[in-house]
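Entry:
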Amino acid sequence: MSRQKSAAGAANRHSITEGVIWQQLLLFFFPILFGTFFQQLYNTVDAVVVGQFVGTEALAAVGGTTATLVNLFVGFFTGLASGATVTISQFFGAKQDDMVSQSVHTAIAFSIAVGAVMMAVGLLGAPFALRAMGTPESVMDYATTYLRIYFIGIIPNLIYNMGAGILRAIGDSRRPLLFLIAGCFTNIVLDLLFVVKLGMEVAGAAWATIISQAVSAILVILVLTKTSESYKLHLKKLRMDKTLVR
């Protein structure tokens, strides 16, 4: 009986190809739409909190060229995650379980590898990138601090985006949204704690962001490791397949 319930739950969760098409598409689409909104909310909350409790220079540092660079990197990797989503969804729809598993492990391993490279580039290149974009010297220290701390936590950000893409590939757009909302509320609470209560200024806002993104990443990884379906993640099997990466 438990197997029958499990099978029924799986059928309900992956029923995007069944029923009234426009209804299924809307049910799948709206969580993605709201997810985009909440993903942009991270930097907005940081900017509001530091603007209110630190000053205009801190606001300019968090909400100016820094935000542009952050959105550039996140947007770039979100595009790569979309590519992985297409590949995994094709294998999942064709019921090629071995290829689904291989694609999932390749995608997460790729996230970690690219995240490590981006972290190194961000830590070293942050001041050069900010100056190339004409960041005023008056906010350079704040902007560099925020950007470098942000890149320290870039790997959890990329893992969340890739993990969310994997879940969407199998027809689940609701849980990635819930995890993102959980991260956003964590960010708000930590912003108030670090910036207002502890007086950590821009650094506090940056640490709040990367910790909250780590929360979302952990929730996604827990779902992927606890499932019994073909997209189950085994941490010991993390490796990249060159063909799938291409």
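The radius of gyration is 19 Å.
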